[in-house]
Design the sequence.
């Protein structure tokens, strides 16, 4: 059984650019959630994907968007990067059910200059 | 709005000391509760969870937590900490009717001195 993997590990972008982060779910999981963790803070929920559709969204602007693919992997896209977008971006996968448990990947560290 | 408060931001203990980390949440409905741990250089790992039933739940590595509904609390405990318990600990809550959105506390950094 493979765990949640994310790529890339680190990324440096400049303000105004666009970025795509990737996540592969744990084997057997069909739901992916994305979180933003700023330095010294707990993770904040961005959105969740299930059956390739957005299934719940946190308090993030539309320039944060995502995709889920038929193999349950997922992408997080952020447009028009701002300095405050610098953070650790976490992906968590789970098996849809009631209730389910989310398992986290190692994260992608994004730095916006 | 849902929120989670972890009272201790930084805790320093000697090995063999007892640990209790506080967690209070704000939500009026039925909740699922979690403690996650992040060891240095590693990713978030599930320590334990409460969905229903016995309010005293046991997790990995000798940790346990007690759900007290009347106090909206889910405190984490360990009778005797080890140096290897040095990590950041996060409490999280989720509405039981919404399996997506986890609300995390700010985290508590635990430093165990050998």
Sequence:
């Amino acid at each position: 059984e493979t765990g949640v993997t994310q790529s890339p590990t680190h990324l440096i972008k400049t303000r105004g650019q666009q970025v795509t982060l990737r996540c592969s779910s744990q084997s057997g999981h069909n739901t992916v959630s994305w979180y933003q963790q700023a330095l010294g803070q707990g993770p904040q929920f961005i959105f969740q994907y299930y059956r390739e559709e957005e299934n719940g969204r946190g308090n993030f602007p539309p320039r944060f968007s995502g995709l889920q693919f038929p193999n349950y992997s997922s992408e997080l896209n952020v447009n028009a990067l701002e300095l405050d977008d610098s953070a650790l971006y976490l992906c968590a996968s789970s098996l849809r059910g009631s209730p389910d448990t989310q398992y986290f990947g190692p994260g992608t560290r994004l730095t916006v200059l | 709005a849902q929120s989670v408060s972890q009272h201790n931001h930084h805790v320093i203990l000697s090995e063999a000391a007892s640990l209790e980390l506080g967690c209070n949440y704000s939500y009026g409905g039925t909740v699922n509760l979690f403690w996650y741990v992040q060891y240095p250089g590693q990713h978030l790992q599930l320590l334990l969870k409460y969905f229903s039933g016995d309010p005293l739940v046991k997790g990995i590595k000798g940790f346990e937590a007690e759900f007290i509904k009347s106090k909206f609390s889910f405190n984490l405990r360990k009778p005797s900490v080890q140096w290897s318990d040095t990590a950041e600990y996060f409490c999280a809550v989720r509405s039981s009717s919404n399996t997506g959105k986890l609300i995390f506390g700010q985290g508590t950094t635990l430093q165990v001195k050998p």
Summary: The longest strand of chain B covers residues 87-95.
